[in-house]
Amino acid sequence: xxxxxxxxxxxxxxxxxxxxxxxxxxxxxxxxxxxxxxxxxxxxxxxxxxxxxxxxxxxxxxxxxxxxxxxxxxxxxxxxxxxxxxxxxxxxxxxxxxxxxxxxxxxxxxxxxxxxxxxxxxxxxxxxxxxxxxxxxxxxxxxxxxxxxxxxxxxxxxxxxxxxxxxxxxxxxxxxxxxxxxxxxxxxxxxxxxxxxxxxxxxxxxxxxxxxxxxxxxxxxxxxxxxx
Length: 228
Known about the structure:
Layout: H1 5-18, H2 29-36, H3 40-53, E1 56-59, E2 63-66, H4 71-95, H5 98-117, H6 120-137, H7 141-157, E3 158-160, H8 166-181, H9 185-200, E4 203-205
Antiparallel strand pairs: 1-2, 3-4
């Protein structure tokens, strides 16, 4: 069964974000195909997509390599996020469905429970799902297509310091959902802008690791997950 290129793309992107491939490191089709247990065709398609997203660059005589963004490029990502996230929230207030609202409220309940329990790892995942769902609720595929790789790139370039008051963040999420539920686009935009600006200060650039190889080339990859 042929593995879709988008599944291979997701797997490679996740490994880039996780630091499995060093910035500037070569990405050969043969190595990637062997690592993920696929043919070179979906790998080639995936690399083209990742290049368009800014994770990969093609260099003359070197082929595909992991991108090496500058500090200014990284700073620009946070600036773009401060513009797009509030827009997505405003659109969500205008276009959300009842299904979107149920998911958002469920995530807020879970986030508030985890915040009280001090489960930081769960909070990071839930926060990502919250903002992904908010983008989807905007009813704008183009906006979602911009925000999704943007969040991945920010996670790749930045480490986020744990909040000293995680409950505060989820109270802000709850207020955003309330504005979305009321279809108050202006309030949803303003609350999200304030939330994004506040969390921006917790982002710290990750140190760049040297090297041009996969960190653990023998690490087993669950290729069955690519087929699901």
